[in-house]
Design brief:
alpha/beta, Rossmann fold, putative n-type atp pyrophosphatase, domain 2, 2 domains, five-stranded parallel beta sheet, four-stranded antiparallel beta sheet, globular
């Protein structure tokens, strides 16, 4: 199977990437939709320009898809890039968004390939905790909800602080896995990559929103 992983660089697409590797499939590259302006209903925005370094660490290709924040443009731009890759399937980290999953499946159908969402409806906390147990180094690179302050920006989750994250999610009623956009992540290491990325950056925070802006990866 020749597959491409739709990757934002975050935890869910990284878990999906590892899932494909464990099946012995040929991961020909990471494909990242980069939003030119604003937010996206489909894809993560922060730090996506650094996914190239994950691909370089793994020795695979990186394909950047430039798109606006409209769903139609995101899907059509993505479809144009995938059409030239001679794939059997795409793999994504979709967790609970029916909208995202259906859009990707319809696109794959038009391309004549399969669409896999191996994380679909996994238990949020068990999914997150299991990734950490398996060696994924998940860095929080944005927060946007009550309960998560500037201290979390640039934090790499471990088996201790993820329990604190769970407690806060219960207290402030946000999704512990960030599925509602409460926080975003960038994975700097794990079983899917042969090396750990060293990341430099700066944090900025205002009211309930903050970003850890990556400035260098080495």
């Amino acid at each position: 199977m020749r597959i491409a992983v739709l990757s934002s660089g975050g935890k869910d697409s990284s878990a999906a990437w590892w899932w494909a590797q464990c099946r012995g499939w040929d991961v020909v590259g990471l494909v990242t939709v980069q939003i030119r302006d604003g937010d996206s209903h489909m894809f993560q925005v922060p730090s996506t320009n650094w996914v190239e370094h994950q691909a370089l660490a793994a020795g695979i290709s990186w394909y950047s898809v430039d798109a606006s924040g409209s769903v139609d443009d995101e899907i059509s731009s993505l479809e144009l890039v995938l059409r030239d890759l001679e794939l059997d399937a795409i793999v994504s980290g979709a967790l609970r968004s029916d909208f995202q999953k259906v859009k990707l499946e319809n696109m794959a159908h038009r391309l004549g390939i399969h669409s896999f969402s191996p994380l679909w409806h996994q238990d949020p906390y068990n999914h997150l905790y299991g990734m950490i147990e398996n060696g994924f180094q998940i860095m929080i690179n944005s927060v946007s909800c009550e309960g998560l302050d500037e201290k979390w920006l640039g934090t790499v989750l471990d088996l201790d602080n993820v329990k604190i994250l769970k407690s806060l999610s219960e207290q402030y009623r946000f999704n512990v896995d960030g599925e509602g956009g409460e926080y975003e992540t960038f994975v700097i290491g794990g079983p899917h990559m042969p090396k750990t990325l060293q990341v430099d950056g700066t944090a900025s925070f205002e009211t309930v929103r903050g970003v850890f802006k990556i400035t260098n990866i080495h």
